[in-house]
Amino acid sequence: MSSSVAQLLPVLAAAEGGLNWHGFFFLLFALLACCLAVAVVLADNVVRMAFYLVLSLGATAGLFFLAGAEFVGAMQLMIYVGGTLVLLIFGVMLTAQEPFVSIKTPVRDKVLAGLVGGALLAVLIQAALSGPAWSGSAAEGGGGVALAAGQPSATPLGMALVGIRVDGDVASGEKSPEDGQVRSGYLLPFEIVSVHLLVVLVGAAYLARSKRRKSSGGQGADLSTGGMR
Amino acid sequence: MEVQSDLGATLSTLLGLAWLIPLGSFAAILFFGPKMGPHGRNSAWVATAAIGASFALSLFAFGTWMVAHPPQVVDHHGAEHHGAEHGEGEHHDGAHGGDDHGSGHGDAGHEEHSSWSPPRGSGGVPATFARFADDAAAAEQHAAGEGGHEHDDAAHATAGHSSERPAYSGDWYSLYRSPTLVLSIGWYIDSLTVLLFVVVTFIATCIHVYATGYMHDELHDITDHEVTLASGGHLHRPGRYSRFFQGLSLFCFSMLGIVIAGNLAMVFVFWELVGICSWFLIGFSFERTSASTAANKAFIVNRVGDFGMLIGLMALWGSLGTLHFGDTVSVDADGHQVVQPGLFSLVRPAENGHALQVPDGMVVAAASDRVASIAAGSSAEAAAAEVAGEVSEWRAMGMGNWLLVVAGLGIFCGCMGKSAQVPLHVWLPDAMEGPTPVSALVHSATMVAAGVYLTGRFYPVLTPDVLVVIAYIGAITLFIAATIALVCTDIKRVLAYSTVSQLGYMMLALGVGGWVAGLFHLVTHAFFKSLLFMCSGSVIHACHTNDMRRMGGLLKKMPYTGWTMLAGCLAIIGAGVPFVIGFSGYYSKDSILAQALLFRQVNPSHAVLWYAAAGGAALTAFYMFRLWFMTFLGEPRDEHVAEHVHESPAVMTAPLVVLSVMAVIAGWSLGPLGVANLLEQARPLGTADGLTGGGLLTAAVTVPAEAASHADSIHFTATITAFATAAAGVLLAAAFYVWRLVNPAAIATVLRPVHTFLENKWYFDEIYDWIFVKPAHGIAALASANDRGIIDSIIHFFAWASRQLAAVDAWMDRVLVDGLVNVLAAATWSTGLRLRSIQTGRLRQYVMFIVVGTVAIFLLVSMMFSTTVASP
Amino acid sequence: MAEYLIQTVGLPGWLTWSLLAVLSAVLILNLMAGGALVFIWAERKVSARIQDRLGPTRTGGSFGWLQSLADGIKLLAKEDLMPEGADGMLFRVAPYVSFCASFAAFIGLPFAFDMVGLRLNVGVFYVVAVLGLEVFGVILAGYASASKWSLFGAMREAAQVVSYEVPLGMCIVVPVMLAGTMDLVTIAEKQAGWFTNWYLFHDPFTFVVFWVYVTCAVASVNRAPFDLAEAESELVAGFHTEYSGLRWSFFFMAEYSSMFLVSGLAAVLFLGGWNGPVPIATLLGLSDGTGESTGAIVRLLGLANLLGKATLGVLIMMWIRWTLPRLRIDQVMTTCLKYCTPIAAVMFAGAMTWLWVFPGGVLNLDDGSRRPGEIREGWLEGPGGRSTAVSDAPVDDAPALAEIAEVSK
Amino acid sequence: MNLLSDPVGVSHYLIVGAILFTTGIVCMVVKRNALGVLMGIELVLNGANVNFVAFGSPVLRGEQASILGLDGQLMALFVILLAAAEAAVALAITLNFYNNHATVDVDRADDLKG
Predict the structure, then answer these.
(1) Closest CB from D27, D73, D96 relative to A153
(2) Chain D residues closer than 8 Å to A113 by CB
(3) What is the pTM of this model?
(4) Average pLDDT of every residue of chain C
(5) Cis peptide preceding B423, ω within 30 of 0
(6) Which of A113, A119, A130 sits opposite B869 (nearest CB)?
(7) What are φ and ψ of residue C61, in 5° steps?
(8) For position A30, which CATH number holds?
(9) A57: nearest CA in chain D?
(10) CB atoms D7 and C408 under 8 Å
C-alpha cells in the first residue's frame, strides 16, 4: 500500500518506505481548508457558508498544529472558530429572513471575479514558488525537526507578550536577555491590543444596541430611518 | 536656634495659610458662588468659615508667639524711679522682669551671629529665617547705660530686651531674581504682624457674621429706589449676595497680604489689590451714580498717593537694590552663607548701633559725579575700594540725605492716600456709599489702617524731616476732619470723618515719635470704629435712612445697638477714670497725647501739634456724643421712621456685643500681657532712642524717645487734659442735644459762615474741581478738538485715498484674479462631474479595483525590477 | 509500548505509530460510548433515588444494569425523521459536529501519566477550545431543524456557552499560573504527593476558584440548572426537538462525554489528576514519586484514580440536576456576568498575590532549587531542572516528524 | 520544482495561504450578503495567517534562527485577535445597516455614490 501511495504522491513517502504521516495530514488539512474555502464562495445559503468557513478555519488550525504552532492553532480554534464564528452565526440568524438568506449575484460579476481572482492566485503562487529557500528547507536544515518536535510554543509566546524573548538565540544559549541583543518583546502591542479589544467591545455593543428611541422621540426616529435614505 | 527657626517656619506656615484661605474662599465664590444654595445663600457661610478659619489660625499663631516670646512688662509709671527724664531713657522693667527674661535672654545672649539657620528648601526656593537679635547692639546699649544711666541687673536685662527684637522673614517664592532685584512673595513676621493678623481676622469675622444678616436683602431681587431709569421706573435687579462676600474674601486676602508682606514690592501689589477691592465694594450698587462715582473717586485719589509711593519705591530700589524689609540669607556656590541686608539693616546697620544713617547706596547714588571721577582714574577694584573709603566722609557731608527723605515722603504719600490724610482724605466720606459692613471693615478698621501700618512698618527708614511732615499732616487731618464731623447730619459720614480724624491722630502719634502709641491706637480704633459702624449700620437697617435728624429715641427700641454704640463712643473719646481704668481708647489716646506733649516740650516751636491733639479730643467727644444723643435719646423726630423701627436680628447684634467687649478691654493689660507690651516687642531696632535731625524741610527737630512720655509729669498732664477735653465735649453735646440749654440751630445761624464752610467740608471738593478737574476737562477739550479737527481729517484723507486705490485693486481682483480662479474651479468642477461616476458606491466593485490594482502593481514591479520578490 | 513494537516485534516505525494512534482513538471512542451508557443508567438511578423512587429494576438484573443498552438498541431501531423545511445537509451533520468536538477534546485529556491521546504543551487551552466547538453543532442543529423551539434553544445555548467561556477560562488560568505550564500532564504531576498538594488546597483563592469552575462547567455543558437550551417546559426539547434515533443519541453521547470531560479536567486541574489523596504507590515503594519511573501497575492505579474522580464529578452534576430548579435565562446570564466573572477575576488576582507573597507555599516545603513563581517548563529550567516536558515523544505527531528527520538524512 | 515530490515546506503553506486569500477575495467580490463579505474578510486574514505561521515555523524552515522565528506566531496571534475585534464591529455595523435598510445586501449600501 505504502509504495503505491508513494508513487502517486511522493510527498507522502517516507525514507523507510512507509507512510509519511506529516505529509498525509498536511495534504488532508490543506485540501480540507482549500476545498471548504471554495465551498464558502460557491454556497448560496449564508448559514452553510458559515458552516464551511468554520470547517475551513478548523482545518487551518490543524495546519498550524502541523507547523509546530500549537498555541496559535489552539487560539485559532478558540477565538476564530469558537468566538468569531459564533458571533457570525448570531448575525446570520438575527438577520436571516427568508428573502435575504441567499441573494443572487449576477453571473457577469461571478465571471469577472473568477478572472480577477485567478490572476491574483497566479501572482501569489508565482511568488510562493519564487523563493528557492522556501521549499524543502527542512531537508537542508538537519536538526530542525528534532528541536521542533519538543519545542513548546506557549511559554515563549507568553513571555514574548509580556516583553521577554526567550526563543531563538536565547534558547540556544548564544545570547542572554541581559545583553540587550535579543529581539524585543511585544508588551506594548499586547497592551494596545487589549485596550483595542475593550474599545471594540464597547463600540460594538453601542452600535448593535436596539434602537428603542423610535417610539419615544419623533426626532430620533426621523434621523435613524429617514436620514439614511 | 533651630527651635527659633522652626518657630519662623511654623508662624509663616500658619499665617500664610490664614492669608491664603480667604483667597480660596474668593475663588470658590467667584466660580460657584451663585450655585451655593438658593440665591447663593451659602456663599456667606463659605466666606465666614474661611475668615473664621483664618482667625483660628491667626489665634494659634498668636498663642505660639506668646509662648515663644512672652511680652515683657513695660512699666509706664516706673520710669521716674529710673530717671527716665533723660530724653532717650530706656524703660526699665524694675523688679518683676527678671525671671521673665531668664529664658528669653538666655537664648538671645548666646546666639551671636550663629543665629542663622541653614536654609531649607521649600518648593525649591531658599526659605531663610533671619532673626534680629544682635549682640553688638546689646553691647553698645549696655555701654551707653553704663555711661549715662544708673545701671543694675534689671537694666542689663532690659538692654538685652530692647536689642532683642524677635522677627522672622523669608521668601516663599521668587517671582524674579537678578543681581539687582529680587521680587518675591515673602513674609516678615514680628509681633506687630501677628497682632494685626488677629485683629484683622477677628474684626473681619465679626463683620462677616454681621453682613450675613445685613445683606439679606440681596438674597432676592431688589428694586433700587435710588436709581431711576430712563423709562421713569426704578431699577430692578437680581440680588448680589454672593458677589458681596466674594469681595469681602478678596479684601481680607489683600489686607492680610499687606500685613504679612516681606518686601515693599509685595506690599505695593497688595496695596493696589486692596484699592481694587475697595473699588468693588464701594461700587457694590454700581447702578447708583453716587456709588459708582464714589468708587471711582476713591480709586483715583488712591492712585495719586500711590504715585508718590512708586517714587519712593524707585528711590529705594534705585539706590539700595533691595525692597526686602528683613535680611535675606542664602547659600552661595561655596556653601557660605551670604547675608543680603534688607532695608532696615541698611538704614539702621547693626555696626552703628541701629542708629539711623544714610545707607551707602544712597550716598554713592547722591555722589555719583564723584564716583564717576574716581572710576575714571583707576581700575575697577581700586575705585571700589576708594569709594568705600570715601563713603563715610560723604555721608558726613550730608550726601544722600535728600534721597532718604524722598523715599520716606514717597512711601508716606501712599500711606496718605490709603489712610485718607489731608489733602487726599476726600474719598473716604464718599466711600460711605458702600454697604455698611464694607464701611465697617474696609473704611474704618482695616484698609485705611493699612496706611498707618505701613508708616509704622517703614518707621526705621523715616528721617526727622519726614516725621515732622507726618506729624503736621496728621494734625491738620485730625483737626479738619473733626470740624467737619461737627456739622454732619448723615450718621455714617460723621463716623467717616471721625475715622479720618482718628487716622490723623495715629499719624500725628507716629510723627512725633510715638510708634507704640500710634499703632496702639490703630488696634483699639479698629475695634471700636468697626463697632460704631456696625451699630450705625444696625440703625440704618432699622430706620432705612442715614439722616440723624429723622432719628431719635431709639434706645428703647434698639437696646443692644444703643448700649453697644455707647460703649463705642466712650471708647473713642477715651473715657475712663483717670489713672485707674478706662475704655480701650483711654489708653491709646492718652499715650498719643503724652507723646505730643513731650514733643512740644522738646520742640517748643511745634506746640501747635499738641493743641491740635488736645482740641481734637474735645471735638471728638462732642461730635460722637452729638451723634449718640441725636440718635438714641430724646423723642423720635420722625414718626414715620420711628414706628417701624426694630432691633436687628441676633446675627447682627451678636457681633456688636462681642466687639463692644473688645472695645472696652482691648487696651487693658494683664500683667505683661497687653497690646502695648506686645507692640513694644515689635518696636523697630534703634527707634527706642530719640532722633535728632532735619534741616532739609524744617528746622532741626528732636523726635523724643517714646519711653520718656511715660514719665509721670508728662503722663499726668496728658491724662488730665484728655479727660478734661473729653468731658467738656460730652457736656457740651449734652447741653446742646439732651438738656436743650442751647439751640443748635441758633448757634448755626449765628455762625452762619463757619457753619456753611464746615458743611461744605472746607470746600475741598470744590477746590479740587477747580484746580484739577476743570483744567483737565479743558485740556481734554483741546485735545479732542485737535483730534477731531486735524488728525481725523488727515486720516480721512488717507482713507479716501486708500478707497480709490482699493477700487482699482478690486477691479483687478474681480476680473483678473477671480477670473483665473473661476476658470480653475470650473475645470475642477467639470472634472469632478465626470469622475463621480467612478464612485459607484458598490462595495464589491471597490474590492475588485483593489485586487486589480494590487496585481497590476505586482506585475509592474516584477517587470521593472528584475529581482524576485523573495530574494534568496 | 512504541519501543516494544519497534524494537522487539520489528514493525516499521510508521506502522507502529499508526497502530498506536488507532488504538488511542478506539479506546477514547469506547470510553465515550461506554461512559454514556453507564452514566445514563446512573442518571436514572440517581434521579430515582433522589425522588424517592427505585428507577430501572427489571432490565438485566435487579438494578436494571442493561437499561441503557436496551435504550440504545431502541434508538438504533428508531426511524430518523427530518422536518420538511429543514436544511438537510446541516441537519445531518450537526450531531456529528457536536460529537467530534467532544471526541477531539478527549485527545488532549490525560488519564494517567503518559496515558494521553496527544500530549500537547497547550493541553488545557486545546481542550477548552475544542470543547467550545460543541456549541457549534447545537447551533447548526437548531437552525437546520426549521423549528422555532430548536432555534430558540440554539440561541440560548449559544449565548450561554459563549458567556460562560469567560469565567471558565479565568478559572482555568489559575492552576495554569500555579503550575507555570498549560501542559495537563505536567500540571497533574505538580500535584503529586499528599492531597494537600492539590491545587484545590493550594490557597484560599484556588479553593473558591474551584467552585466557580464547577458552576461554569455545569453551565457550559448545559446541565441543569443551566439547561435552558432544552428546557422541556418551554421549548419542548430545545435544539433536539426534531431529532430522533441515532442522531439524537449522538447528541446525548456528546453531552455525557462533555460532562465526563469537564469533570476529568477539574480532576486534573484542581484535584491532583491521577495522584490519589494518599501517595500509596510511593509509600509502598512502587514509585519514587515522579511520573516517568512508574510501572504499569502504578499507571493503572492512576487511571482508576482519575476515572473515579471524574465519575464523582459527573455524579455531583447529576445530584445538582435533580436538586435545583432551572434558572431563567436572565438569571443564567446574571450568574455568569455578575457573579462568576467578577469572583473569578478577583480570585485570580488573589491567587497571583498569594503566589507572590508565598512563592514556595505557606510552609515553603520546596527544596529551594527553583522558585515556583518562575518559568517552570522543563526545557527552560536549565540542566539542573527536572525535565518532564520533553522526556517522552508525543504519541501522535512524532512518527511523522521522525520520518521527516529520516528523510532529511 | 515539484511540490508533490518535495517534503512539506514553506512553499506548500504559502500556496495554501494563497488559495485561502484568493478565495476570500473572490468571496468578498461575489457575495452580495454583507455577512458573506465578512466571511471573505475572515478568509483573507486566515490566508495571511497561514503565511505568517509558515514563515515562523521552525519545523518548516529547519533552522534555529529562522527569519521570523516566534515573531510569525505572534503576528498570527495579533491577527487573530484583531480579526475577532473586527468581526464584532463589522457585525454590529451589519446589524445597524439591517435596522436601517431592512436588508443586508451591500449593493444597496450606495447612498453616497457619486
Answers:
(1) D73
(2) 26, 29-30
(3) 0.53
(4) 77
(5) yes
(6) A130
(7) 110, 170
(8) 1.20.120.1200
(9) D46
(10) yes
A123 touches B at CB < 8 Å? yes
- Whether C and B touch, i.e. at least 3 CB pairs below 8 A, reads as no
pLDDT at A168: 55
Domain spans, chain D: 12-102
The residue range of the domain holding A55 is 1-102
Q: What is the pLDDT of residues B11-28, one digit of tens each?
A: 999 999 999 999 999 999
Q: Which residues of D touch C408 (CB under 8 A)?
A: 7, 62
Burial (CB count <10 Å: 0-12, 13-18, 19+), residue B717 = middle
Identify all chain C residues contacting A70, using CB atoms and an 8 Å cutoff.
120-122, 126
Cα Rg of chain A, angstroms = 24
Yes or no, beta carbons of A86 and C12 under 8 Å apart? no
In the prediction, which pLDDT does B620 show?
92
pLDDT of amino acid A142: 37
A129 inside domain: no
| Binary contact (D7, C401; C-beta < 8 A) | no
Q: What is the pLDDT of residues B769-800, one digit of tens each?
A: 999 889 999 999 999 999 999 999 999 999 99
Strands B168-178 and C110-112: unpaired
Under a CB-based contact definition with an 8 Å cutoff, are residues C228 and C279 in contact? no
Q: Chain D contact for B839, CB < 8 A?
A: yes
HSE-up of C364 (CA within 13 Å, CB side)? 8
- Quote the CA–CA distance of B419 and B522 in Å, as a whole number: 11
- Of all residues in chain A, the one with the smallest CA distance to C380 is A171
Q: SS3 letters for B15-44?
A: HHHHHHHHHHHHHHHHHHHHHCCHHHHHHH
Model confidence at B97: pLDDT above 50: no
Q: What is the pLDDT of residue B127?
A: 36
**What length does chain A have?**
229
Mean pLDDT of B585-609: 89
What's the rounded Cα separation, in Å, for the pair A11 and B140? 115
Tell me if chain D has a CB within 8 Å of the CB of B833.
Answer: no
Distance, in Å, from the CA atom of B709 to the CA atom of B720, rounded to the nearest integer, reads 14
Provide the 3-class DSSP secondary structure of residue D44: helix
What are the pLDDT digits (tens) for C268-306?
A: 888 888 877 877 777 776 666 555 556 777 778 888 888
Nearest to B135 by CA among B98, B155, B105, B93: B105
Task: Show the cell assigned to A175.
Answer: 545570547
ipTM: 0.73
Task: Select the residue from A27, A76, A145 to test the C interface by mutation, using most C Cβ atoms within 10 A.
Answer: A145
Q: Is the CB of A132 inside 8 Å of chain B's CB atoms? A: yes
- Among the listed ranges B620-624, B776-780, C7-11, which one has the minimum average pLDDT value? C7-11
Name residue B208's amino acid.
H
Q: What is d(CA A152, CA C391) in angstroms, rounded to the nearest whole number?
A: 13
Q: Which CATH number is D12-102's, of 3.30.420.40, 1.10.287.3510, 1.10.1780.10, 3.40.1260.10?
A: 1.10.287.3510
**Residue A198 CA to chain centroid, in angstroms?**
22
From chain A, pick out residues whose CB is under 8 angstroms from the CB of D82: 193, 196
In-domain check, residue A3: yes
Is the CB of residue B300 less than 8 Å away from at least one CB of chain A? no
Contacts of D7 in chain C (CB under 8 A): 404, 407-408
- Based on the structure, what is the number of domains in chain A? 1
Q: How far apart are CA D110 and CA B846, in angstroms?
A: 12
**Between residues D11 and B517, which one has the greater pLDDT?**
B517
D110 touches chain B (CB under 8 A): yes
**Dihedral angle sign, alpha carbons of residues C395, C396, C397, C403:** positive
| D113/B838 CB distance under 8 A | no
The label of the residue with cell 446742646 reads: B736
| Backbone phi and psi for residue B761, each to the nearest 5 degrees, phi listed first | 60, 45
Please indicate whether, in this complex, the C-beta atoms of A24 and C18 are within 8 angstroms of each other: no
CB contact at 8 A, B460 and B132? no
